[in-house]
């Protein structure tokens, strides 16, 4: 099975669950604490690897204990870590993730070694004979990491490798020009509704349809909009396919979009229909949102099989999805 190449952040997440945020200068006592490997691209990579999809990861950590731990854990999950470089000056990224009563997360990060990934770190061999290149929008925030992302796009396009780009919530404004320039190169764009309206140049008062079509007119081939409790929608020229949401008790939204992207990529590469792919992605995102901490630890074959069986998915789609997860 051809591998998926993934480029993006590697970090350690320290997650704190709080009943309420304290005022500035106050003190918040967490009800729960946990830590794990995080990073939008890393979450997606770990989930794909757990589903049996070969993954190659292109990234950078510090030459420190956290970097050692992340690399060892990723390799243990089956990820090819040969293209993870180490930085002697900057540390491995640490995220402090504070989860409030609604399940929404607030993140404080020092991006550290991730930003130091350069174009020279992206080797043609990392993408050779791969099925797909997946990028996290975080990689477009700042050079030299953004140069590494552009280098990967150039290599992928030269080799006719499809490219997907996931825009995590909260950064669309910062990477808007970079995304606009890349849209003609992107086969599938994943993003939230508010970010679609921002990047589609339609304004927050625009309809979802107008925003999506604005992105398509700007060059995107497939636009997949993540709508949380409203499910998801795939837009492509002349086509609009809605996938209904999966009802769960939201505990922590950290990584839900990363899990969604993993489910969508897995379904697409497995040859599932668009409705089946959307259903699988929605279930993956829902599983992540209903667990505290890094999403990759919650989304597994067994969790997906259990989730799709309880999600009220059309039986024909269920019959399409289950054999691919079990393979």
TrEMBL record:
One of its GO terms (biological process) is phosphate-containing compound metabolic process. GO terms for molecular function: kinase activity. Keywords: Kinase, Transferase. SUPFAM superfamilies: Ribokinase-like (SSF53613). Pfam families: PfkB. Residues 3-297 form the Carbohydrate kinase PfkB domain. Belongs to the carbohydrate kinase PfkB family. This is Carbohydrate kinase family protein. It comes from Pseudaminobacter soli. The lineage of its organism: Bacteria, Pseudomonadati, Pseudomonadota, Alphaproteobacteria, Hyphomicrobiales.
């Amino acid at each position: 099975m051809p591998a998926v190449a993934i480029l993006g952040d590697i970090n350690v997440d320290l997650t704190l669950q709080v009943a309420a945020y304290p005022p500035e200068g106050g003190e918040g006592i967490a009800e729960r604490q946990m830590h794990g490997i995080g990073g939008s691209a890393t979450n997606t990579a770990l989930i794909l690897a757990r589903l049996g999809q070969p993954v190659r990861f292109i990234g950078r950590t510090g030459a420190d204990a956290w970097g050692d731990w992340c690399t060892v854990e990723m390799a243990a999950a089956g990820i090819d870590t040969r293209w993870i470089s180490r930085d002697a000056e900057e540390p491995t990224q640490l995220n402090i993730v504070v989860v409030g009563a609604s399940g929404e997360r607030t993140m404080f990060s020092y991006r550290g070694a991730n930003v130091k990934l350069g174009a020279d770190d992206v080797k043609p061999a990392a993408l050779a004979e791969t099925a797909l290149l997946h990028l996290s929008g975080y990689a477009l925030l700042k050079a030299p990491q953004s140069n590494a992302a552009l280098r990967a796009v150039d290599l992928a396009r030269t080799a006719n490798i499809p490219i997907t780009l996931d825009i995590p919530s909260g950064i669309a404004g910062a990477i808007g020009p970079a995304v606009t320039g890349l849209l003609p190169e992107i086969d599938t764009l994943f993003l939230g509704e508010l970010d679609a309206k921002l990047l589609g140049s339609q304004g927050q008062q625009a309809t979802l349809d107008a925003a999506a079509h604005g992105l398509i007119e700007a060059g995107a081939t497939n636009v997949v909009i993540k709508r949380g409790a409203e499910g998801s929608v795939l837009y492509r020229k002349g086509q609009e396919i809605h996938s209904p949401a999966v009802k769960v008790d939201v505990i922590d939204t950290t990584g839900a979009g990363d899990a969604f992207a993993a489910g969508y990529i897995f379904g697409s590469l497995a040859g599932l229909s668009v409705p089946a792919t959307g259903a699988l992605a929605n279930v993956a995102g829902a599983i992540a949102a209903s667990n505290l901490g890094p999403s990759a630890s919650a989304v597994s074959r067994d969790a997906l099989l259990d989730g799709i069986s309880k999600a009220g998915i059309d039986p024909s789609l269920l019959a399409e999805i289950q054999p691919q997860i079990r393979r």
